[in-house]
Amino acid sequence: MIVRHVPREGAAGYLQPIEAAGYQIERIDVASPDFADIDLTEPDLLIMMGGPMGVYEQDVHPWIPVQIGKLSARLAADRPTLGVCLGSQMIAAALGARVYPGGHMELGFAPVSVNAAGAGSPLRHIDGVPVLHWHSDTFDLPDQVELLGSTDRYAHQAFRRGANLLALQFHAEMGEDPRFADWLTHFWADLDVAGQCGVALRQDHDDHGPSAVAAGRAMIGEWLAGIRA
């Protein structure tokens, strides 16, 4: 099951390895009236994608504490779970870590520095590959997880817990999805905050996107192959 926080942020390039691994894709939007009744411990695989809201904005988005509660139960059962950007922050919160504004926008294509633990994990596929970053929130590293990668701006870019939990702050799924154009127009204020030029970012997307998605697919494919039922 894919949980979408906004329709424009879907699994994109990650769909190919997910389907290749034999999973049938179901989607649920947090804005759906059905979301409150969903048991997130049931799906064989749960994937939570990104969104512009912050985990700490629970007064504005009442579904956030609902999702964190459902997610906490799933993680306690060690059910296979992947979080991307906001999804990774949701995982951190569900594991009891603080999520908060980082003080600066990280936006654009740049590589993640993969550490020694990451080199022995599926993250090895993105080592040295520019991938898309688009966030200004961050989180403390939860207890009993393994940090896999960092950037100069944000130390906590990826972590895992055992074989069944992977959290990614960056967007290696984006690089060939036409919804990127929608990101540029809908989130234009982020470009101003980051001092980014939309034309230059679109060119970076064209230059780096295919290699980012290829690396991201290899990463997710290897992670899925290692899941323990």
From TrEMBL:
Please list which residues make up the signal peptide.
Answer: none
Tell me if Ligase is a UniProt keyword of this record: yes
What does the entry list under GO cellular component? cytosol
Question: In this protein, which residues make up the domain named Glutamine amidotransferase?
Answer: 19-187
Q: Name one GO molecular function term.
A: GMP synthase (glutamine-hydrolyzing) activity
This protein's UniProt keywords: Ligase
In short, the EC number is 6.3.5.2
Q: What's this protein's name? A: GMP synthase (Glutamine-hydrolyzing)
- Native organism: Sphingobium scionense
